[in-house]
Amino acid sequence: MILTGPDRYHLNFDSKTFRVISPIGGSKFFGKAISKLPKLYVVSTDGVPIYVGVTSQSMRNRLRYGWNASGKGGYYGYAWRHQLSKADLDIWFHEDPPNDNPRLDLETVEAEVVYLIKHAGQWPKHQTEIHFHPSDEAHRAAAQEIIAGYEL
């Protein structure tokens, strides 16, 4: 498993809209963030992770889906969009996903990251779901590396 990143973006938002501020300036996602590569993303405020997610969509499409959700099918979108107005968004990219289940490794790392956050004291404040899969040392090492950049 080859993970690259993170690419850090800043988000300004209210409950209905969001604005992206890219690390190179401007208001758009670029590079791998707009690709179909599997991505693990961490939303944080003041260095504290509040949400961990995985997607293979472009980040703009994934965020749009989380902003436009209305509860249909049981999904209400990102809870943090109703309580905050800004956050940091860090994205890691799975460079060599397997063809048979490209998201499996990152879903496994996602669970390990959330576990490490919980182990430090509490679940991420706005985490609403998680996918559990058996992990190996590579997944746990990736989670340790990811979480090292945050306040727990």
Summarize the structure.
With 152 residues, the protein is an alpha+beta fold.
Average pLDDT number: 95
Strand order of the largest sheet: 2-1-5-3-4
Q: Low-confidence stretches at least 5 residues in length (pLDDT < 50)? A: none
What is the number of beta strands? 5
Give an overview in words.
- It is a single chain.
- The protein is an alpha+beta fold and 152 residues long.
- The chain is 24% helix and 26% strand.
- The protein has three helices and five strands; from the N terminus they run ββββαβαα.
- The protein has a five-stranded antiparallel β-sheet, with helices on both faces.
- Strand 1 (3-13) and strand 2 (18-21) form a beta hairpin.
- The chain is globular and about 40 Å long.
- The two termini are 26 Å apart.
